[in-house]
Each structure stands twice: as C-alpha cells, then as structure tokens.
Specification:
Layout: H1 15-47, E1 53-59, E2 68-74, E3 87-96, E4 99-104, E5 115-117, E6 122-124, E7 131-133, E8 138-140, E9 149-150, E10 152-155, E11 158-163
The chain binds FE2/S2 (inorganic) cluster (FES).
C-alpha cells in the first residue's frame, strides 16, 4: 500500500509561490527605496529654476536719485520648503534717471546683513565691525572683498535685479 502525498488544489498557493511573491514584493520595494532618490538626483537639474533670474523690484519713480534703499525679493534658487528664508535683499541706489546699482546685503566676511548708514555714507556690518564705503569697497574690518553687486536694468519703467545665489566668501 503506497501513500500518496496530497496535491494542492489549483487555487491553493504553495509555500514556494508564497515566498516567490514575497521576494518580488521586497525587491520592488527596494528598487523604489533606492531608485526614487537616485532618479530625483539625476533629474533635479532639469526641474530646478534657473540660478539667475530677473526679478521686478518696482517702478523707477519709487526711487529718488542718490537714495539707497533696501529692497526685498525672492532668492534665485529657493528650496520648496524654504518658507520666509527664501527672501533675500539688496541695497539699491539710484545713480541717475535710468541707472541703478544694487549691493548684496551679505557681508563678504561671513555673510551677515550689512546696514546702510546714510549720514556716514557707509555700509556697516554689525557682526565683526566690517565697514564699506559708499561704492561697496572695504573701508575697515575683516571683510576680504568689496560688497557683491547684482546686475540691474530698467525695463518699461520698472527696475529689475538679476538675482543669484547668496554670495558666500571664499577667502
Ligand atoms: S560678517 Fe561682516 S565683518 Fe564679519
């Protein structure tokens, strides 16, 4: 008398099939786990905003010739989660009817925001006492370079600044 091993019914899942499906599932999960970040890294240059961009600052008439005003605008490469930190600023001076100069607010020493002192015609950095002349060149203190300037243009009566990433000093 021989004993036959029970055959699985056609709809029953065998242990081998079960483990094969678990392996496929885990393999797919691993591919997604590592593949999505890699794909994001490879494709991110295509999805990013240009690092330089012209931004509208306001009408020319909002600025008096000779005045230096702080203007706020969005950083050229804000991260989606940057929130208010995506805002940056420049010191904008109107030098003629259609000419402007824009200085970065970031000190070239370690990046602290500089202040314009109209009575002294100087930019002052509160962090380590850096001082800049009216034209942005270094007057005193540790800053190694003049203040960075942004390109400025007037288009249809509007002042536009070409933004770029926050200038970081490389000493
Ligand atoms: S950050 Fe401005 S002097 Fe150091």
């Amino acid at each position: 008398m021989t004993e036959e091993s029970p055959q699985p019914a056609p709809d029953d899942i065998t242990r081998r099939d079960f483990f094969a499906k678990v392996c496929y599932g885990l393999g797919g999960f691993a591919v997604a786990l590592f593949g999505v970040p890699i794909a994001g890294f490879v494709l991110s240059p295509l999805l990013q905003k240009p690092l330089r961009d012209w931004v509208d600052i306001g009408g020319v008439e909002a600025f008096e010739i000779g005045d230096t005003k702080k203007v706020v605008f969005e950083d050229a490469s804000p991260l989606p989660w940057a929130g208010v930190t995506a805002r940056t600023a420049a010191w904008l001076r109107r030098t003629g009817p259609d000419s402007f100069i824009a200085f970065s607010v970031n000190c070239t020493h370690l990046g602290c925001p500089v202040k314009w002192l109209p009575d002294a015609d100087l930019f002052m950095c509160p962090c380590h006492g850096g001082v800049y002349y009216k034209d942005g060149t270094v007057a005193a203190g540790p800053p190694p370079h003049p203040l960075t300037t942004y390109p400025v243009r007037v288009s249809d009566g509007r002042v536009e600044i070409q933004t770029s990433p926050i200038p970081i000093t490389t000493v």
